[in-house]
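Hi there,

I know you've been waiting on this one. I reran it after we fixed the sequence typo, so this is the corrected version. Both the input and the resulting structure follow.
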Amino acid sequence: MPQASSVVLNDGTVNHTFVPVAVSPEKSVFVDRSAATGAGSPSLVLGFDGSKPARLTNKISIRLNQPLEYTVDGVVLIKSTIRFQGEYVLPDGLTSAERIAFNNMVQAAVSVAGIAGYVDSLEPYWG
């Protein structure tokens, strides 16, 4: 199992460094401490739920939360929070090469212009 270290994510303009604050095999939490308040700190949460006799799949979850701050009379408040939640469901018995290939397809799907447009422009495909 790899040791947890900082994760750097780029939002297209700025690099955000997420440092590990809670690490376990089941759930690891990383936080970007650059926000004005603790409540405004973006977080990255990675979860792992290994296979069980009743469920022969491994579940890996990824959550990214980005609170949006604003200031009123010198007080920093949270306006809203942008969230992403994704989950891999990987059957037991997959080879490392099969997991890597599937992860590469997921990464490519997220970066395809038409699919990114769903998020970037709120423009889904239509007829």
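Quick highlight: Residues 57 and 92 are 5 Å apart (CA to CA).

Best,
R. S.
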